[in-house]
UniProtKB/TrEMBL annotation:
Keywords: Amino-acid biosynthesis, Aromatic amino acid biosynthesis, Cytoplasm, Isomerase, Lyase, Multifunctional enzyme, Phenylalanine biosynthesis. The record marks 268 as: Essential for prephenate dehydratase activity. GO terms for cellular component: cytoplasm. It catalyses: prephenate + H(+) = 3-phenylpyruvate + CO2 + H2O; chorismate = prephenate. One of its GO terms (molecular function) is chorismate mutase activity. It is found in: Cytoplasm. Pathway: Amino-acid biosynthesis; L-phenylalanine biosynthesis; phenylpyruvate from prephenate: step 1/1; Metabolic intermediate biosynthesis; prephenate biosynthesis; prephenate from chorismate: step 1/1. Residues 1-86 form the Chorismate mutase domain. This is Bifunctional chorismate mutase/prephenate dehydratase. One of its GO terms (biological process) is L-phenylalanine biosynthetic process. Residues 287-364 form the ACT domain. Its EC number is 4.2.1.51. Its main location: cytoplasm.
Length: 370
């Protein structure tokens, strides 16, 4: 074979390399957007070293050094391109994703949605929790944002029940600091107030303040932001709402008394719900629900699986099992990833011991696990 033939062969090989290069960079783009979406650093030295080591092993010894240099250069190009794509993007990764939440703009759910997804371009609000689940079931939205627990008042039990009823999965979480405020129309003074609207959680989180105003009629409403909107529409200085400062701003209301919640560290944890179970190496939190027979020591025998496998439990919540008296559904959150051997062992042991078991999700923690 002459020089021209060798050059032609190299040209043909280069064409194949370019085609594979395009395929690789398209995938690199998707990885870059995923990293942006999940706030992950572009450089993952451990991952790059693993890829290089794995592929260099495929080469003869005579080419290992050059192969390593080639892969390192390719990794550098990929990182540079990912950074370019991420910096170039002026829109959120979720701009074209349909997201549902209960309540209206200015609600804490709305705030959690903005902090997690960084956009509300295709956000849709619903009157109550189940409306959001129904919409997800019918394909009207792709994700839902719902409150699951508050640091002052505990679990949002209806959301736990709906999560199990509809068979969806937790794919993320967002914690929001909650400050409740007494708000009303311009000109309203605290001495004018006769009726106060809010979600029951708003009342429960502001018990000490409300104890000093026992003559007020407390009227439960869909949620705090809807309460604010309703008070604005009533345009009556004898009516007030307990809601966020953001809700007051959106609906043009006056903050009469700020920070009325009992707990200064009042926080609500919101879950992001989707139709499909997700898993990734960066995920570090797992949620499950299970039920046991009403027998002495049954819960202890299950919890020991976690202790024996050195798995850190983050939360346990119980809910009555409607069809069977004195039996309960137990909702547990714990640290870990589904790819971990100890986690897999504990989950399999839990499945075997339970009369009912369901994996609720594996996701990246934003609240407890650092």
């Amino acid at each position: 074979m002459g020089l021209d033939e060798y050059r032609k062969k190299i040209d043909d090989i280069d064409k194949q390399i370019m085609k594979l290069f395009v395929d690789r960079m398209e995938t690199v783009t998707k990885v870059g957007l995923y990293k942006k979406q999940h706030n992950i650093e572009i450089l993952n030295t451990c991952r790059e070293n693993q890829v290089i080591e794995k592929n260099v092993k495929l080469l003869d010894d005579s080419l290992k050094e050059e192969g390593k240099e080639f892969l390192e250069a390719m990794m550098a190009v990929s990182r540079k391109y990912q950074a370019k794509i991420i910096n170039k993007q002026n829109t959120s990764t979720y701009d074209y994703v349909k997201i549902g939440y209960p309540g209206v703009r200015g609600s804490f759910c709305h705030q959690a949605l903005l902090e997690y997804f960084k956009t509300e371009k295709n956000a849709k609000n619903y009157n109550d929790f189940e409306d959001v689940f129904v919409s997800l079931k019918n394909g009207e939205i792709e994700y839902a944002v719902l409150p699951i627990e508050n640091s002052s008042t505990g679990a949002i039990n209806s959301v736990y029940d709906l999560l199990r009823k509809y068979g969806f999965y937790i794919v993320g979480e967002q914690c929001i600091s909650i400050d409740q405020n007494l708000i009303g129309i311009d000109g309203t003074e605290i001495t004018d107030i006769e009726e106060v609207y809010s979600h029951t959680q708003g009342f429960e989180q502001s018990t000490m303040f409300l104890q000093n105003h026992k003559t007020w009629k407390l009227i439960p409403y869909h949620n705090t932001a809807t309460s604010a909107k309703h008070v604005k529409e009533l345009n009556d200085k004898h009516k007030a709402a307990i809601a966020s400062r953001e809700a007051a701003k959106i609906y043009g209301l006056k903050v009469i008394k700020e920070g009325i919640n009992d707990n200064r560290n009042n926080t609500t944890r919101f879950i992001i719900v989707g139709k499909k179970l997700q898993n990734d190496d960066i995920y570090n939190k797992i949620s499950v629900v299970f039920s046991l027979k009403h027998e002495s020591g049954s819960l202890y025998s299950v919890l020991k699986y976690f202790a024996e496998n050195k798995i850190n439990l983050l939360k346990i919540e119980s809910r009555p099992r409607e069809e069977t008296n004195w039996e309960y559904f137990f909702y547990i959150d714990f640290e870990g990833n589904l790819n971990n051997e100890a986690i897999d062992k504990a989950i399999n042991e839990l499945k075997t011991s339970s009369s009912y078991f369901r994996l609720l999700g594996c996701y990246k923690a934003s609240c407890e696990v650092k």
